[in-house]
Backbone:
């Protein structure tokens, strides 16, 4: 390939990139926006259980065996309860459907009981 032909290839490639950039910018410019400001806000999310849950755990040997969540209000029925246990190294999660009438739910885990143990409970729905 001669030097002139090589320069033409480079020039054509550069021209192609310019056209591609112009099409992309033109497309982005055609995207409509309804507001010219951004902001942040907060919304209150209603809880199905206003007084919270009771959480207890039973250790089996060196493992967390069962986490029982009790005091679940009937208004949580039909929601999905998720319980996560974190021993500082590993996290295990289990979910169950909250039964009609609320009450209590046992969650079975096989995770080593650690010093930095944390249990999180979350209900989504109903």
Residues:
């Amino acid at each position: 390939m001669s030097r002139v032909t090589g320069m033409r290839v480079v020039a054509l490639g550069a021209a192609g990139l310019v056209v591609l950039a112009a099409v992309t910018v033109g497309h982005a410019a055609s995207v409509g926006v309804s507001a010219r400001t951004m902001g942040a806000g907060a919304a209150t999310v209603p809880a199905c259980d206003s007084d919270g849950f009771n959480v207890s755990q039973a250790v089996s040997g060196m493992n967390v065996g069962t986490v029982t969540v009790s005091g679940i209000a009937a208004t949580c029925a039909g929601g999905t309860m998720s319980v996560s246990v974190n021993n500082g190294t590993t996290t295990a999660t289990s979910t169950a459907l909250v039964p009609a009438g609320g009450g209590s739910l046992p969650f079975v885990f096989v995770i080593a009981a650690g010093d930095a143990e944390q249990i999180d409970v979350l209900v989504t729905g109903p």
About this structure: Residues 49 and 73 are 5 Å apart (CA to CA). Strands lie at 54-60, 63-72, 80-86, 91-97, 103-112, 118-124. The radius of gyration is 29 Å.
